[in-house]
Amino acid sequence: MLERWEPVIGLEVHVQLSTRSKIFCGCSTAFGAPANSHTCPTCLGLPGALPVFNLRVAEMAAALGLALGCEVRERSVWARKNYFYADLPKGYQISQFAEPICEHGALRFFVDGDEGEEVRVAEASIVRIHMEEDAGKSVHDGGGGHSRVDLNRAGVPLLEVVSAPDLRSPEEAAGYLKALRSIVRYLGISDGNMQEGSLRCDANVSLRPRGERALGTRAEVKNLNSFRFVAKAITHEILRQAELLEEGGVVEQETRLYDSERDETRTMRSKEEAEDYRYFPDPDLPPLHLDAALLERARARLTELPVQRAERWVAEHGLSVEDARTLSNERGVAEYFEAAVQAFDGPGAVPAKWIVGEVLRELGERNASIEALGLAPDRLAELMALVEADTISSSAGKQVFAALLGNEKRPRELVAELGLEQVSDSGALEAVVAQVIRDFPDQAATYRGGKKGILAFLMGQVMKASGGKANPKLASEALRQKLEEE
Amino acid sequence: MRAPLPAPTLAELSTALEEGRHSAAGLKQAALDRIAALDGELNAVIRTTPERAAAAAAASDARRERGERLGPLDGVPVLVKGLIGMAGVETDGASKILAGYRPPYDATAVARLEAAGAVIVGQTNLDELGMGSATVFSAHGACANPWDPERTPGGSSGGSAAAVAAGYAPLALGTDTGGSIRQPAALCGVAGLKPSYGRVSRRGLFAFASSLDQIGPMAPRVADLVPLFRSIAGGDPLDATCRELPVPEAADCAPSELAGLTIGLPAAARGEGVDSEVIARLDAAVAFFEGTGARVREVELPHAELGVACYYVLAPAEASSNLSRYDGVRFGRRAQGVTSLGELYARSRSEGFGPEVQRRILLGTFVLSSGYYEAYYGTAQRVRGLIARDFEAAFAQVDLILTPTSPTPAWRRDEKQDDPLAMYLADVFTIPASLAGLPALSLPAGFTAAGLPVGLQLVAPAFQEARLLSVGSAFEDAHDFAGLAPVGEEA
Ligand SMILES: [Zn+2]
Question: What's the pTM value of the predicted model, to 2 decimals?
Fold first, then answer.
């Protein structure tokens, strides 16, 4: 079906900023406090209470805008978006409409290939980034038929990042969202935690006949709160629309909700019921002017972005795109990798292999950050050098790696302490090889009978007999020679 | 009802307190007694605040006994329009939708008044949530004009105007969106100042139209406005629209020499629809100013005539949004027996809001709706800009602009009530200054043959309140009708 139809997808992502206080009052933004304990007249929308803008939000918005190559407006305007809901205390949301803080940028992101295909890099245009306040939360499981409202979240600062309809598959949408999360974490403006709602996504999905330029009618799928659900909901929506079009039907412009339990989207409201938000400039807030000092603070947050960094590593160090993506995803890991490359006298592929293989596995097991690992990049570099120089075997290297964690010892000391220095002395190696051949005569005979594959078993025995210290290259040569001799 | 006994001025009370001839507690009690005696007829006061007043008066008297005094307001009774929130005091904006609502915090103006030692004795009546020109649309019933109880006191700060005219207290706070301080001041024969937009914090003022609302002082005399104005003016970190500018010194607000002053008079001041007796008072004022050596010349405000139309697009638009918070969910009135959220909103709001407020919400919702935004709201914003530019051009030529405050004296309370358009035209002279954010003063300017007060309006460039107050005081000093009381004990 999808040979004929091309999906066209645009995302609207809400990023919850990690300011300590709310966007228009001094209340705390901490997650998980007792209901309504972080509220004041302003975020409760009490009569007479007025908003006062937290400039930190503009600093963070400008930082994201600069990172994505947007125009950052020197003057932007606050607007009211009017609608009724129980968890919207003022009956309107303070947002930006006609003149948002950032416009016209672009985001580069990785896309998982289909089976057998490589990871690739793609780009989507950013239409705008604007600032707004979050609403509260309705709690419907209160019992007694009552719904309750928790306004702790009301007034928590959000950025809404709106992409152009440049995405063409659920994988691209997921890749875009992951890249955006990675960037906001790089900039230190959001924890990007989708479970806690720090990143929320609405997707606009439409189909058009392949080769056509005009856009089809779109449906908006709301409230996607995990990477998996984003891809699943969009997949589902594409298939729904394709089936409809194949049958000669028409796609209605509407808002749909994704039900993750049933894995389906369903109508929330149609175009006819669509809200008229009656936007107008908020008379309580003067237009926002960004001064040079604020822009300077925003600029100070900038750093090379993950995808750009990864692309550079592919070019400079010959990393695979997959490894480069893995290493660039978190700023701490990326910087660790770069420090290890600096400290290591050799190709960047070696630290990449160690960090992807050992360091990230260890972090995953401990669920810890790289800072908590207790292994400075220069110590890792020293360990890598020992392995590369054949001073120790790579399996001994893994032992040393484990021993290095959580102490200050140098790898060299540990090699000596653990007695892991490789045996490269040919006399000693030959003695071990001879002993193994004596101990495993059947296997030696098998080898000599032509089944060369048994060599790996015998090598394993050599390594075992040497306590892992035999230089594998020399040992395997000696073993082959000895077997062939007799 | 009128009696030729002047009510005690602020200066007299303040001196009496200083000299120990009165106590704050005594003045407070006299105010409460006078309200109890007279307000059955006037209905100018929604509720008194005797406990809060007693505490403030006691603190003031204690200060005085220690030989300390916070300034001219220390120990003086004040009334506050019932649209300005007071912590713990039921403040309902004269609306059923807010019945029972007690704000958890004081409005900045209230806090500043009390910090200056003033004793707040109660809340005054108003048109519901500030919307109206006659103090008829009040959940607490209509208010009467002390000069003639058959007539309106004007609105929406009609309660504050009537209360000071009746001598309940020498001072009151009102709020002005399109003329709500100035027009009732004129109709009740008292003085009222609408400060520049951004001069007084709106924090704690229940919003009607945020880009226009200002809190301001009302008193029988222009001179008495000065300390009240100075106490509430100045920047507030809790209101982003309130400007951090120096507050005028009292000396700069004192009566000034009028010679050399240029006063602008727009043609419309004597135009169609203006009552002949109002024009007569205006002419008398012009003659007075010219007699003092001031120059009076015509100025053009070509877009001012669009002011009323512009205002009745912008103010309802903002109001429709500002009033959305009154939804029956978190505070105020909640409809009973509802079965859905939509029904809760619809029923709470139609039961809670009165007819004028509903009319403005509907109008405001319409002009902001996506198909009509440009035609109405967008156009009105542009007109607002033109009106502001007209004033700027005029103030390049003149120091102040003089007009009537209201085109007519107080009308009978049964008139105009069912004719909103006629009511809206009552604000034709006050609205342009509001749209331009300029300070404007209404000062007593004499009486009609029937004994009804007439007020005149002076408008100044932004943040030039001192110019208004000093010229207004000079005018007042030269006349004997300011401070006349409609009611009073026989001498
Ligand atoms: Zn708050």
Answer: 0.90
